[in-house]
Amino acid sequence: KNLNKLLIRILLHLQVEFSSSVFAVVLIIAIIYILMQMKHLRRSRQLLEKLNLKLSEANRIKNSYIGHYLDATFKLVNQLDNFVLVGQQKLDSKQYDSLSSMIHNLNSDFNRKSAFADFDRTFLSLFPTFVESFNSLLQPDDKFVLENKGALNSTLRIFALIRLGITESEQISEILGYSVNTVYNYRVRTRNKAVDPANFEKDVRKIGL
Predict the structure, then answer these.
(1) Range of the structural domain that residue 194 is part of
(2) How far apart are CA 165 and CA 105, in angstroms?
(3) What's the domain count of the chain?
(4) Is residue 10 one of the residues assigned to a domain?
């Protein structure tokens, strides 16, 4: 700012003292060019700062999910190793009823419902105000009211994935176990309830920034 003021003062001085001079005209053009470049540099710096914030936020999400799911993966591997070992022993000793019970318990441990609950907890730990921010994008009569504050419903889970950058309906359907048409219908139905339907999903991706 101080440099801007100095350049403007020089510019005004030159206009008064050397208005008929070719040299003054050249200096005036040079100063105008410098001011324009400074303005451009300020804009570039602001853009760079915004990009750095986005990168920091992306790294925070990535590191959190990598740490969480590495831990979950190793726990699963250990449980499966133990299942194979004990299951083989029961099979060798013909304990079929006990083996059947083990298989049932394993299936219960890793069903989709528990996977959803795990995802919800992790996501909401990263974006604790997601539901509130999401509701602010909707019409007053269409806001979501959740009985369990620590869990997402189907619609919110779809848009949670969109917030994480997973925007293809096919990929969302594979993750959540819904049909592609179901995901598409959820997205369209919710978008139509938005205050600004045209920019709704773009606004969702900005939640937490």
Answers:
(1) 112-209
(2) 34
(3) 1
(4) no
Question: Mind listing the pLDDT tens digit for each residue in 34-87?
Answer: 666 666 666 666 666 665 566 566 666 665 665 555 556 556 666 666 777 777
Q: Convert the pLDDT of each residue in 97-139 to its tens digit.
A: 776 776 666 655 556 777 788 888 888 888 889 999 999 999 9
Please indicate, yes or no, if residue 183 is contained in any of the structural domains: yes
Cβ-contact 165, 55 below 8 angstroms: no
Query: Does pTM top 0.85 for this prediction?
Result: no
How many CB atoms within 10 Å of residue 187? 19
- Does any domain span residue 9? no
